[in-house]
Amino acid sequence: MGALKPGLYAITDERLTPDAELVSAVAAALAGGATLVQYRDKRSSSATRHRQASELNTLCRQAGVPLLINDDPELAARVGAAGVHLGQEDGSLQAAREQLGPDAIIGITCHHRLDLAWTARDNGADYLAFGRFYHSGTKPGAPPAEPSVLTEARELGLPITAIGGITIDNAEPLILAGADLLAVVGGLFDGGPEQVEYRARDFGRLFARHHPTFFQSV
Ligand SMILES: Cc1ncc(COP(=O)(O)OP(=O)(O)O)c(N)n1
Ligand SMILES: Cc1nc(C(=O)O)sc1CCOP(=O)(O)O
Ligand SMILES: [Mg+2]
């Protein structure tokens, strides 16, 4: 998987990881073994987003875990983040690649559609994200997907991310179907700060049991 390691992909949320708790919550996710982090904040001012992204970038660099910025290649470039996650409405992958360079990690939302995945691969995506697999309180309107798309997507030869309503109790079928990364907001952060590290460790144990190449580092 190159710079990407299989495992828990922790995604922040301005309601569940508010400013005062953001850094400690992500630090707990990293201590519990998260292998990828995404800074996702749809509401805060650009100054706040810049400060928070910088703080998370320092933290993630110290942990040796890539930080991706949701939606915003410019912010990723400004803070020196490892890359971006782009949805289908978030601007072109090629433009982000030009801005961030060949080593940046660029992930693309593919919903439940393999045609979008092939296009993303042709355009140089580093991972493909499918979802939502379960009801999501974070993004209830995201289009639904079936786990079989994860299996079908294996033939593209890129790391596969699953997202949407994932908790420790419903995650196993997604790894068994072919997910390399489980992208989680509520299932990681909605139990309060003290739960985050335990939950992250539980996801790690699930990967250790079911993912062919997962390496337990914590
Ligand atoms: C890992 C991952 N997968 C999917 C998404 C969703 O991206 P997008 O469709 O652009 O929606 P928003 O997150 O921008 O609301 C994601 N962020 N991360
Ligand atoms: C940001 C996002 N994108 C989705 C998609 O299906 O593309 S689902 C989703 C929300 C993920 O949060 P939670 O783990 O709380 O459901
Ligand atoms: Mg987006």
Automatic annotation (TrEMBL):
The keyword Magnesium applies. Condenses 4-methyl-5-(beta-hydroxyethyl)thiazole monophosphate (THZ-P) and 2-methyl-4-amino-5-hydroxymethyl pyrimidine pyrophosphate (HMP-PP) to form thiamine monophosphate (TMP). CDD domains: TMP_TenI (cd00564). It comes from Marinobacter oulmenensis. Keywords: Magnesium, Metal-binding, Thiamine biosynthesis, Transferase. Pathway: Cofactor biosynthesis; thiamine diphosphate biosynthesis; thiamine phosphate from 4-amino-2-methyl-5-diphosphomethylpyrimidine and 4-methyl-5-(2-phosphoethyl)-thiazole: step 1/1. GO terms for cellular component: cytoplasm. Belongs to the thiamine-phosphate synthase family. It comes from the Bacteria. Pfam families: TMP-TENI. The gene is thiE. Transmembrane segments: none annotated. This is Thiamine-phosphate synthase. InterPro entries: Aldolase_TIM (IPR013785), ThiamineP_synth_sf (IPR036206), ThiamineP_synth_TenI (IPR022998), TMP_synthase (IPR034291). Its EC number is 2.5.1.3.
